Amino acid sequence: MSSSMTTMEDPSGSSIRRVVLHFSDGESRTIEVAEGQEILAAAKARGVNLASQCTVGTCATCISQLLVGDAQPKPDVVTVLTSEEASRGQRLLCQTLAHSDAEFDMGYPSSLLLANPPVFFNAKIGRITRLAESVAEIEVKVPKTMRLKFTAGQYCRIRVPGTDDWRSYSMASGEHEPNKLTFLIRILPKGTMSDYLRDRAKAGDVLEMEGPLGSFVLEPTQRPHLLVAGGTGLAPMLSMIDRLRLLRPAPPIQLVFGCVKEADLFHLDELRARASFTPTLQVRISLEQDSTIPGVLKGNPVTVLSRTDAPEGTIAYLCGPPGMIAAAEQAMAGFGLSLSDVRSEQFLPS
Ligand SMILES: Cc1cc2nc3c(=O)[nH]c(=O)nc-3n(C[C@H](O)[C@H](O)[C@H](O)COP(=O)(O)OP(=O)(O)OC[C@H]3O[C@@H](n4cnc5c(N)ncnc54)[C@H](O)[C@@H]3O)c2cc1C
Fold first, then answer.
1. Is the pLDDT of residue 185 over 50?
2. What is the pLDDT of residues 29-58, one digit of tens each?
3. Global pTM?
4. Does residue 61 have its Cβ closer than 6 Å to ligand 1?
């Protein structure tokens, strides 16, 4: 990484760096980054939406490879990037400052993020199904005139009817059916969306929505896929499986899905059906509490993982509550996967 110090200045006298972002589909974007400004923040301010989530250095969604220039992590900030990864030139753009002009390999195609800009729309609930004690499935009909497009793994924000509160939910349905979206929603004992779904929601209700959002997106490849889901974190995995099974040949897919207890389990038939028409899909179910269901493993979806679940070349997608994601990321590192081969979505509380 050569360091070419540039001294372009803005009118206030501070240095401006030119940072070129190269995407894997050959596209590139050049952004100007002010002194002391994080590269991710600079990109956002200039309308370039990059893969990101937590923006505080803990999720690694914005990891990129420095190709040219001097761009360093902010001093005194602790992130999940190891010193070994940093010395190889990997950077978390949310916590990186450009000290010279620089170039980055983003590692994903620009089309994943730039192709489907989010829009606001209204959609009607078609069906609400209680799948388990703590899980509801809602099917939402999007007007055909909308031409909504999304990538498996993305989510929508939904305004809870009768309130000003918005909540985020990942699409469980496939990219091929953008006008009939399905969401899997955990019903908490008390919560704005949970109360609405339990007490008032009915077919025909109109929902205000925004989407598609998020950079936890499937990049379909023939590499082995390890999908690890906790509870309703199964939602984006179903959408991803529906996309992956269309690849010829379909890649090996290992899905590990865990819940706390039998009463929380859902979609076992759905998973069986997918495994029967996707021969490369293997499904493992785990429960933290004892279970009488044949074949169910004891533990959470991370403790039941082993090194053999991540053969050479594996790409891992993790989705669920923050604690599970942290444990799964640690497990992936232990299996030798690099941060850039691990994508995760945390269901952070609103
Ligand atoms: C990008 C993204 C995608 C998401 N996708 C999904 C999805 O597909 N399915 C899904 O079920 N959820 C998903 N979530 C979480 C979801 O957006 C809501 O936070 C969740 O449904 C709770 O909403 P609520 O209105 O019922 O409860 P709230 O009114 O938000 O919270 C009520 C109380 O419960 C607590 N609480 C909130 N969440 C949790 C939790 N997970 N565990 C324990 N306590 C909690 C809150 O701190 C608060 O005290 C996603 C979140 C993000 C950020």
1. yes
2. 999 999 999 999 999 899 888 887 778 887
3. 0.83
4. no
Structure confidence at residue 224 (pLDDT): 97
Query: Residue ranges of the alpha helices (H) in 72-178?
Result: 83-87, 111-114
Strand residues in 134-224 grouped as ranges (E): 135-141, 155-159, 166-170, 180-186, 206-213
**For residue 170, how far is its CA from the centre of ligand 1 (angstroms)?**
12
Task: Walk me through the domains of the chain, giving residue ranges and CATH numbers.
Answer: 16-112 (3.10.20.30), 117-213 (2.40.30.10), 225-346 (3.40.50.80)
Higher-pLDDT residue of 112, 84: 84
Please identify, by atom number, the ligand 1 atom nearest to the C-alpha of residue 231.
11
| CA 155 – CA 168 distance, rounded (Å) | 7
Take atom 35 of ligand 1 and give the residue whose Cα is closest. Answer: 349
Q: What is the mean pLDDT of the chain?
A: 91
Among all chains, which residue has been given the structure tokens 């925004």? 210
Give residue 233 CA to ligand 1 midpoint distance, Å: 11
Query: Measured from the CB, is residue 186 less than 6 Å from ligand 1?
Result: yes
Considering only residues 340 and 231, tell me which one the structure prediction assigns the higher pLDDT. Answer: 231
Give the pair of three-digit tokens for residue 142.
């999007």
